[in-house]
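Escalated from tier 1: adenosine-5'-diphosphate holo job.
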Amino acid sequence: MAKKVAKKAAKKKAVKKKAVAKKAVKKNVKKTVKKKAVKKTTPKKKTAKKAAAKKTAAPQKGKLVYFFGAGKADGTSQMKNLLGGKGANLAEMVNLKIPVPPGFTITTEVCTLFYKNKRKYPKELEGQVNSALARVEKIMGKKFGNPNDPLLFSVRSGARVSMPGMMETVLNVGLTTKTIPGLIKRTNNPRFVYDAYRRLMMMYSDVVMEKSAGIEPATDHDAIRHKLETEMDKLKAAKGYKQDTDMTADDLKALGDRFKVIIKDTLGSEFPDDPYEQLWGGITAVFASWMGRRAVSYRRIEKVPEDWGTAVNVQAMVFGNTGENSATGVAFTRNPATGENVFFGEWLTNAQGEDVVAGIRTPYPVNEAARSEDSMHLPSLEKAMPNLYKELHAIQNRLERHYTDMQDIEFTIQDGKLWMLQTRVGKRNGQAAIRMAVEMANEKLINQRTAIMRVKPDQIDELLHPSVDPVAEKAAGELGKGLPAGPGGATGRITFTADDAEAWAKRGEKVILVRNETSPEDVHGMHAAEAILTAKGGMTSHAALVARGWGKCCIVGCSDLDIDLRNKVVNINGKQLKEGDWITLNGSKGRFYEGSLPLLPADPEHNKWYKELMTWTDKNSRLQVRTNADSPSDATQARLFGAQGIGLCRTEHMFFESDRIKSVREMILSEDEAGRKRALAKLLPHQRGDFYGIFKAMAGLPVTIRLLDPPLHEFLPQTEKDLQDLASDMGVSYDKLRAKNESLHEFNPMLGHRGCRLGVTYPEIYAMQAQAIMEAACQLAKEGEKVYPEIMIPLVGHVNELVKMRNTVVEAAEAVQKSFGKKVAYTVGTMIELPRACVTADEIAGKADFFSFGTNDLTQTVYGLSRDDSGRFLPYYVEDGILKEDPFISIDQEGVGPLMELAVKKGRSVKPKLKLGICGEHGGEPKSVEFCHRIGLNYVSCSPFRVPIARFAAAQANIREQL
Ligand code: ADP
Ligand code: MG
Ligand code: MG
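Tier 2 regenerated the structure:
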């Protein structure tokens, strides 16, 4: 068995899939629900055997290997944790009586045990593998390693979630010098057999003997894969061949002999000539790749736990390359880039596995609907093999209905017989996710709540992404075009390697990663880049899949790119660009341009599916979503995004505007209260005007206004020159000004004279603000408009602070109401942003009409760290794993969360209906929104552009709670 236990895991190169079609023509997809094909075994006479078969469809203790084939599978789609996604779905397809080559899945538990036991397998494994293998042999009527009629296997990795960084598939396992003659005799096709053998050697030496064994080639050119490919190219060039398919049996036979020598020379060991050694080598390589560098780094980015492990699928080979009656392909049940409900895919005749995805040959459109301008001349499966297409179409339809979601499927046709090799929920970008979810709900395939759960909050975000300004785009000469793999617009500077992209981005540069194709080795650079542009690959290539997953702008398959990596230049249609040059991508159209074109903000308002989905979210949420807005234009924008009020209006932003800052400074520098009041009187009309505009924009929705919060020195100029200017401007002596400025200096301004502490010492400031708010409100009330001001006192730590400030505010407000002869309902509440406020929330609640959690300050004060200085150490904390996440991005639910919960409990113990909200940055972050929902807040408030995500996350939190 596994004699060569691989030492180190593989770096991984995902299968690169290639697609052509750009524009799918609308096509009538049959709406009739196909009856599920699982023909229940007649319930009456349940034989003992059938009952046993039924019982096995659940995880069993000690069972390490799960068989599937000929209509019977030990597993089901429910067993993804144990069998991995691929294995569970292969089992499910078998259960659905869909034609799948038989095989077996070695469970993820074996992976875990393998690592627990110093890379040794449990001793029962070999026996279980052998008996599953025997069952496959029986179904196929062939034997593994049999010299007369050999059975061949594929070895395929499959974790719970599809994961770049894992080992590639090895096909044709079991071909050896002993079995080759037998297969030639059986197939009467020596060319096919020698081609299969050279593919086995290429894949096996690459992923099993090199990558999984932890061998790191010095350069890309020293990698075994590259050497073998070069050897093959040499042969093709010598013979004047264009296509792989031009090579003859004799060519391939000779090539195989050369391969063996190169493998031995490069890797120091012989290519294994024993079928079982090949099989166990493949199995071990899959497990080893789980701890490979790339897999580990991908898991870190995507937060996939290490203890999930991967499964291994060993499956009988079927061949799409035995002749013109054979084919292979990859397809989606709906268009994964647009979401359109049309079967979409690519295929090739006389091809095996990787050919469709590797980009060596241009794949054909699977049907007429998937045709694009570029593939007009290529044959579709629909036309070329109409009956098989019909069968495939019916299967894809059934699979989508069975899984009630868009499927990504792989198929192979061997000598006129269709086999399904994979189905899984297909990746899609945000736009497609939203359209599919809404259309599927409208087709009654799923309900509205499921539709909401189908879309990730980040995908909503993607829709809100910028696009290239069409006017500028029209004026700009097109540099080149490719396939529109990831929508949206992006602009940045060219980098040619993932490492460069990462390094440049770290320096704060916007970069576009330009490559021939991408592989999992590039994910860090792809992550750092604004967008990705590749010369090769199709809509299902690695670059396209990864970009789509992240909602990144991406163009692939741009054959006009001629990249010279060594000199870091790229030639495009006669133009040469070098590293650092700016380009702009329109990922929705697949066009790109020289230079940096302006980008426009996204326009979700014209997306009818998005709009429909958002109407469903509000119906399904408990939590309301408000916005943080300081100006009428922000308020208007947020209302367009569906904000149900303003949760935080910061008055200090208004202080900075040029016409007011002078009065603000005058107020600060005044010697006494009378002087301050004089200055404040000048500010009053400005503030009143601001509030009037915001109230009006919110048209009767609640508006929470926070009274002045930052320390006063923030309003004074900081340079000597500015101070001098100010002095002469104000007619005060420079020395006096400087002395005042120095006297305002604080050691820890964040913990200093700010928030309600300002109001306590200078009540006239808060009185003026309350007066301005109420005058604006009364004015609007007089005009017949609705207003709901909520006046918020910041940084309260002790109830007495609130008592005093409340009195100040109420006094001012009542005076205004009296003079207007108008009553406007208003409330006075407080921010909860200090630990002491949380702990004494019951006392505070007695004096507050509402609480709003200021989680930025609360996080600062709970941690005792200053956010402004945290940049020096917090990133290391996150990198090192000391903190899982930056607590300023997502609420620290272990440290800060419990204090919030305490405040909720104590506050509501005094006032059961106390209105509770959050206005920190966390209010737009999905995990934090869910937390706020859970602890029973009434609303979250966030910046306007995050409102849709927050609304969405609020609905998801509510639905999840009820699941
Ligand atoms: P990935 O997870 O990267 O999609 P797969 O395990 O699906 O990798 O394998 C990639 C390709 O290998 C498949 O699309 C298919 O073309 C080919 N392949 C895998 N197993 C078989 C098999 N049993 N017979 C024929 N081809 C296979
Ligand atoms: Mg895979
Ligand atoms: Mg696959």
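The chain has 37 helices and 34 strands.
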